[in-house]
Amino acid sequence: MNETRRNTLAIGILLILLGGFFLAQIFWPGLSNLVEWPMIIIAVGAGLFLLGLIIRAPGMSIPAAVVAGIGGILYYQNRSGEWGSWSYMWALIPGFVGLGMVVGSLLGAKELKVADGIRQMVVSLVLFLIFGAFFGGFRGLGQYWPVLLIGAGVILLILYFIPKRNS
To answer: Which whole-number Å values give the CA distances from 84 to 33, 64, 74, 81, in the listed order?
Structure first.
């Protein structure tokens, strides 16, 4: 199947799913109360992932993971009301890129490496822990929040000493 036909197939499937969702809201008006707006962002990320699978573009897993991940952050914030958590939650975005790299590599994107994606996720987690500790995201730790900084430093040292393979 050539690329134009795959793109047409993917867009057709996405339009049917989108139209089906809106039609279902007409027949079941309460359905829209079950779907919160961040879930739409997560669904767009899932749609990007499916589109990448359909058109055989494994690199689409990176934007799909970023969009779905941001949707997940917004879902958490919308449910909890903790909008100030954005002061440290943004640090998860590079980890979403890393997750997309891992998935894309597993799906066959030769330019993406699993090890690079994992490193990206670890660095993102370290940033998340540092900024979360600094901006009060981990209140349960009390005065012991510097332990997170020490742990982040240990993780970075471990990553430094792990040899990087050349392709």
So the answer is: 25, 25, 11, 9
Classify residue 96: in a domain, yes or no.
Answer: yes
In a domain, 134, yes or no: yes
Q: pLDDT per residue over 24-62, tens digit each? A: 878 887 776 667 889 889 988 998 898 888 888 899 999
- Phi then psi for 111, rounded to 5 degrees? -80, -15
Domain limits for position 58: 36-161
Residue 29 falls inside a structural domain: no
Tell me how far apart the alpha carbons of residues 46 and 56 are, in angstroms, rounded to a whole number. Answer: 15
| C-alpha radius of gyration, the chain, whole number | 20
Residue 158, H or E segment: helix 146-161
Q: What is the pTM of this model?
A: 0.74
- Token pair for 139: 């209140």
Q: One-letter amino acid identity for 22?
A: F
Number of domains composing the chain: 1
